């Protein structure tokens, strides 16, 4: 039959099933925003859309989005997968000081740590051993001997957490117990901590270079594959520093060894993580890990009990 095909009006199409080109060829057809797409075209568009979505999420993450990838970028690094020691087997003393070179004391000693130590008493520095927060006050400022005057260490808001005679008795007791090592695990500045402890030695015992026999570890001891940490950085928790202490002092980091370290910190997060690691911490009446803000008589009681244990 020849002639023009009569166009069916919109109203007369009701009830008429119109075959699409794809269905005439045996293919599937789906509506897509008012049109029809065969299955192959639809899959291609879906794949393109997912690629664009992932790219969009990645870009949004880098400028402050809330996806899981952002958490991976902003979360503190973990010791066992990215943090390595920049200064392995270096325990005491200083490499440099940001200020008065008279504060330098001994350079760091390498190796040869006393193998007779059986226990470590480790303190956080800011708001734990000390009442004040020295990093917040000094940050990267140049330091001088005036910053560590006796009036500042015992009569200011930056003072030690314990009173002079109590602190003197505690440190002298620990130093006389030759099997006990005093350690500081801090996010603050090594040169500041070292200078405070040296000043303490002069005040309580008239001993120069007092800090040269106290183990100090700060973020500058560590790095990742791509970044050198500097003192003052928050690197997540204190576990990497506590593991370094265990390895340097006792030669290993097994469960029995970690129990030999008792740790005090003003951060509940740091204390909880240390407890999970297996380090000894103070506990409250309910047996839960507790902080020390700053250390007090109950902390001293826990120390004395700890260093008596085998």
Topology of this structure?
Layout (H helix, E strand, L loop, with lengths): L20 H4 L4 E4 L2 E4 H24 L5 H7 L9 E2 L33 E5 L1 H5 L4 H5 L11 H6 L8 H13 L3 E6 L4 H16 L9 E3 L4 E2 L15 H12 L4 H4 L2 E4 L3 H10 L2 E2 L15 H12 L2
Parallel strand pairs: 4-5, 4-8, 5-6, 8-9
Antiparallel strand pairs: 1-2, 3-7
Keywords:
single chain, alpha/beta, two-stranded antiparallel ribbon
Short description:
The chain has 310 residues and is of the alpha/beta class. It has twelve helices and nine strands.
Description:
- With 310 residues, the protein is α/β, with parallel strands linked by helices.
- The protein folds into two domains: 35-75, no CATH class; 79-308, Rossmann fold, CATH 3.40.50.1000.
- It contains twelve helices and nine strands.
- It has helices spanning 21-24, 39-62, 68-74, 125-129, 134-138, 150-155, 164-176, 190-205, 239-250, 255-258, 268-277, 297-308; strands at residues 29-32, 35-38, 84-85, 119-123, 180-185, 215-217, 222-223, 261-264, 280-281.
- It has a five-stranded parallel sheet, sandwiched between helices.
- The radius of gyration is 32 Å and the shape is globular.
- It starts with 20 loop residues before the first helix and ends with a helix.
- Mean pLDDT is 80; it is low at 11-17, 19-34 and 53-75.
């Amino acid at each position: 039959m020849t002639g023009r095909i009569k166009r069916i009006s919109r109203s007369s199409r009701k009830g008429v099933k119109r075959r699409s080109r794809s269905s005439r060829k045996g293919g599937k057809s789906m509506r897509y925003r008012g049109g029809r797409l065969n299955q192959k075209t639809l899959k291609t568009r879906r794949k393109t859309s997912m690629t664009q979505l992932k790219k969009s999420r990645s870009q949004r993450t880098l400028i402050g989005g809330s996806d899981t990838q952002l958490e991976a970028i902003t979360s503190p690094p973990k010791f066992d997968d990215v943090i390595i020691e920049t200064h392995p087997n270096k325990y005491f003393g200083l490499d440099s000081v940001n200020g008065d070179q008279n504060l330098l004391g001994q350079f760091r000693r390498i190796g040869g740590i006393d193998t007779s130590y059986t226990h470590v008493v480790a303190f956080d520095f800011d708001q734990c051993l000390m009442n004040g927060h020295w990093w917040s006050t000094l940050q990267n400022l140049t330091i001088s001997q005036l910053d560590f005057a006796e009036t500042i260490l015992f009569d200011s808001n930056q003072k030690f957490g314990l009173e002079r005679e109590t602190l003197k008795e505690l440190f002298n007791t620990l130093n006389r117990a030759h099997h006990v090592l005093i350690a500081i695990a801090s996010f603050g500045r090594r040169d500041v901590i070292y200078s405070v402890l040296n000043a303490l030695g002069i005040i309580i015992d008239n001993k120069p270079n007092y800090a040269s026999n106290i183990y100090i570890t700060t973020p500058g001891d560590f790095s990742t594959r791509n970044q050198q940490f500097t003192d003052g950085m928050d690197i997540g928790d204190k576990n990497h520093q506590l593991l370094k202490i265990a390895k340097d002092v006792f030669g290993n980091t097994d469960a029995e060894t970690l129990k030999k370290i008792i740790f005090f910190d003003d951060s509940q997060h740091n204390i909880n993580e240390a407890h999970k690691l297996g380090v000894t911490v103070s506990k409250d009446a309910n047996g839960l890990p507790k902080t020390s803000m700053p250390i007090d008589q109950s902390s001293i009681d826990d120390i004395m009990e700890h260093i008596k244990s085998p």
